[in-house]
Amino acid sequence: MKYDPTLPWRNVLGGGFNDHIGPVMFAQVGEGDYRFALQLEDRHMNSVGVAHGGLLMSVADTGMGTSAFTAAGEKPVATIDFECDFLAPGKNGQMLHGKASVVRKAREFLFMQGEIYADTRHVLRASGIWVIRSGGGKP
Asked: Please, which residues have CB within 8 angstroms of residue 76's CB and are 6 or more apart in sequence?
């Protein structure tokens, strides 16, 4: 998958941990179809010079969580299950970008799938479940 700079990207807001890794960008492509991205920098690398696995997981969780928030009608969501497979390394300077999709939406739960690429190389696949909480929230 190739990164598309023409999508309607916006920064994921909320502060806290996301400010340390980001800015993570988000775009809605269609109903239940979302994109997220992060430019890899030196601060994202591990001791062997590739993107830290925890960063990859965090970007996937942030992108998929923002997708779940959007799919839930901007109601707060919380990750209750998250699984990922590391497929290849991401390198400094590459554009880390991914897609998320809603596999199933139930009354209180969203079942999601996601993929991350470093430039065009598939580096991670993920799946998870988000619970839809009551009340308002931030994206």
From this structure: 69, 132, 133, 135, 136, 137
CB atoms within 10 A of CB 123: 23
Number of other residues whose CB lies within 10 A of the CB of residue 89: 17
pLDDT in tens, the chain (139 residues): 999 999 999 999 877 888 888 899 999 998 888 999 999 999 999 999 999 999 999 999 999 999 999 999 999 999 999 999 999 999 999 999 999 999 999 999 999 999 999 999 999 999 999 999 976 555 4
Q: Assign domain 10-132 to its CATH superfamily.
A: Hotdog Thioesterase (3.10.129.10)
Residues 6 or more apart whose CB falls under 8 angstroms from that of 97 comprise 1, 3, 35, 36, 37, 38, 116, 117
Asked if residues 119 and 60 have their Cβ atoms less than 8 Å apart, the reply is no
Amino acid at 57: M
- The dihedral of CA 51, 53, 54, 57: what is its sign? positive
Q: 């699984």: which residue's tokens?
A: 83
